[in-house]
């Protein structure tokens, strides 16, 4: 079998030979050369495709059918070396890997396919911080790639080789990034998807996506043209998927040369009768065999030009990437993207193509700076997620509290959040939240809660908590997060608390700037531990004990 990335044989044509050498060739050899050499020059290794089913198999059933491939079996004449290599579908133009087992993490996929010279990667999955899902028992979490792959030899080859990548999922437009109502997106992820096994995991995945680096996939696949969707991807009915795949292939083949699409998918939207007619037509494209199928056998005039255009493009991209000296300028990329998008049958389909010469290594997604999303986390903590059971709701709230408690904010953000927390809606929420949900949380999460309010400088949350009629654990955890920037009054209240533990926690966070009289008050406390907490730290500021 010819290696996937081996350059096509380069033979001189007969007319390029020196006249003297050509004269010396025996006549039979001249005739053979005239017939064999051009054919050999045209023979190129097939394009190698990897399809990863993390969500909707129908997406790849349609794409696979447009490639015009057949099952790779001995009965169908598939070469033995392809069968042994694990190829699932094949033709003279394509070999397709569509693994049924995807591993628990992306490491499995990258490790298996990093050396197979993949030209085209297509990933079907919910895009909420990576292509995750429960179909195929796998999870390709892009936010974890750096951690999962850092010691895997040859990992870069998986990402630098492809000339095309299709990302079947919401908010995958690598040019614009996330644009929309984040609360509604989180509702969509929680209510309408199965992207992660639990609601709290899905919420965090959605937050990662909202906070994600809009250029992450452009940097991860530095040589490819990448398909993405601005906003929510068109729903996954076969007619819709057919329109998505058909549109981008028309762009490659040259839509103006192909005439009108066989099925006017766009006209079917909003017209129920037309939608049913088009749906029936698309469903019948594969005939009795059903999807997937070899569409070129069903209608060669319609589908062969689309398949051929993709083959030509990916073979030229393979050569460009392998030689590392064939740059694609910004204007060339813009023209290519325009061809894709003008032929797309849906307006939310968007392409981003690599520019300049290949050779840039992949950049694995970096940890997200969550600080700019503090207000979103707070809004999510207040929002009603609807039909969510109490246990799940508790996990969601605990995760959000932890996120808020881990942030370091700038002054402008603190000011905005303080104003937000002072409005009537937020005051009612905070008092209700401290009544039951917060009390049910662990000590660590309660401290995260008060740490957030200390970071913001919002004293009313502490004033509400530091009342002797509230549970002692809640008062302790509030006292443990006091900061001098919150002012004297909260320390005065804590140092007068009936619980020695509350007084100790407050005293351990005292500073002279709050007043030496407070240090002296703590140094006279009835509890030995409270006295020691200030005397050990400030011996020069306090009179001798006794």
Task: Describe, in plain words, how this protein is organized in 3D.
The structure is a single chain. The protein has 546 residues and is an alpha/beta fold. The chain has 28 helices and 11 strands. The protein has an 8-stranded mixed beta sheet with strand order 2-3-4-1-5-9-10-11. Strands 6-7-8 form a 3-stranded antiparallel beta sheet. A hairpin with a 3-residue loop joins strand 6 (126-127) and strand 7.
Number of strands: 11
Q: Which class do the helix and strand fractions yield?
A: alpha/beta
Major sheet: order of its strands?
Answer: 2-3-4-1-5-9-10-11
What general form does the structure show? elongated
Overall pLDDT level? 84
Helix content: 40-55%
Beta-strand residue fraction: 5-15%
- Residue windows where pLDDT falls under 50 for at least 5 positions: 1-41
The biggest sheet, with number of strands, parallel, antiparallel or mixed sense and barrel status, is:
8 strands, mixed
- Count of helical regions: 28
N-C termini distance: 92 Å
Rg calc: 32 Å
């Amino acid at each position: 079998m010819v290696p996937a990335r081996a350059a096509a044989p380069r033979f001189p044509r007969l007319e390029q030979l020196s006249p003297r050498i050509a004269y010396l060739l025996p006549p039979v050899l001249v005739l053979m050369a005239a017939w064999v050499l051009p054919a050999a020059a045209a023979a190129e290794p097939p394009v190698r495709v990897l399809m990863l089913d993390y969500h909707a198999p129908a997406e790849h059933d349609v794409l696979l059918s447009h490639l015009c491939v057949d099952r790779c079996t001995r009965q169908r004449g598939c070469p033995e070396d392809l069968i042994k290599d694990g190829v699932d579908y094949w033709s003279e133009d394509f070999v397709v890997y569509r693994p049924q087992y995807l591993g628990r993490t992306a490491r499995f996929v990258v490790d298996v396919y990093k050396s197979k010279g993949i030209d085209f990667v297509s990933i079907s999955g919910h895009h909420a911080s990576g292509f995750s899902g429960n179909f195929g028992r796998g999870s390709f979490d892009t936010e974890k790639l750096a951690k999962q792959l850092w010691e895997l030899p040859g990992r870069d080859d998986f990402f630098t080789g492809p000339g095309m990548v299709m990302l079947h999922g919401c908010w995958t437009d690598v040019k614009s990034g996330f644009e929309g109502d984040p609360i509604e997106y989180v509702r969509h992820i929680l209510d309408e998807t199965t992207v992660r096994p639990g609601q709290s995991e899905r919420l965090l995945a959605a937050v990662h996506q909202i906070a994600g680096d809009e250029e992450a996939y452009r940097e991860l696949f530095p040589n490819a043209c990448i398909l993405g969707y601005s906003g929510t991807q068109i729903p996954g009915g076969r007619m819709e998927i057919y329109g998505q795949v058909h549109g981008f292939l028309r762009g490659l083949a040259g839509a103006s040369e192909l005439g009108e699409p066989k099925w006017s998918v766009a006209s079917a939207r909003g017209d129920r009768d037309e939608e049913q007619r088009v749906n029936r037509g698309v469903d019948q494209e594969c005939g009795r065999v059903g999807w997937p199928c070899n569409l070129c056998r069903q209608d060669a005039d319609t589908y062969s030009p689309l398949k051929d255009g993709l083959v030509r493009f990916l073979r030229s991209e393979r050569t460009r990437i392998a030689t590392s000296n064939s740059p694609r300028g910004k204007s060339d990329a813009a023209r290519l993207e325009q061809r894709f998008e003008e032929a797309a049958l849906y307006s939310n389909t968007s392409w981003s193509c690599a520019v300049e010469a290949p050779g840039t290594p992949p950049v694995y997604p970096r940890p997200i700076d969550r600080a700019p999303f503090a207000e979103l986390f707070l809004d999510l903590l207040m929002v009603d997620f609807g039909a969510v059971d109490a246990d799940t709701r508790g996990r969601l709230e605990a995760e959000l509290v932890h996120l808020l408690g881990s942030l370091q904010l700038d002054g402008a953000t603190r000011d905005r959040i303080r104003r937000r927390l002072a409005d009537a809606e937020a005051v009612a929420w905070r008092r209700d939240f401290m009544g039951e949900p917060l009390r049910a949380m662990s000590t660590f999460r309660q401290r995260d809660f008060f740490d957030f309010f200390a970071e913001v400088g919002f004293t009313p949350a502490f004033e509400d908590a530091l009342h002797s009629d509230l549970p002692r654990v809640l008062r302790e955890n509030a006292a443990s997060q006091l900061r001098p920037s919150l002012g004297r009054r909260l320390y005065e209240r804590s140092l007068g608390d009936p619980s020695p533990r509350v007084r100790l926690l407050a005293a351990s966070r005292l500073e002279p700037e709050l007043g030496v009289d407070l240090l002296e008050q703590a140094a006279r406390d009835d509890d030995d531990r409270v006295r020691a907490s200030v005397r050990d730290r400030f011996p020069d500021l306090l009179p001798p004990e006794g």
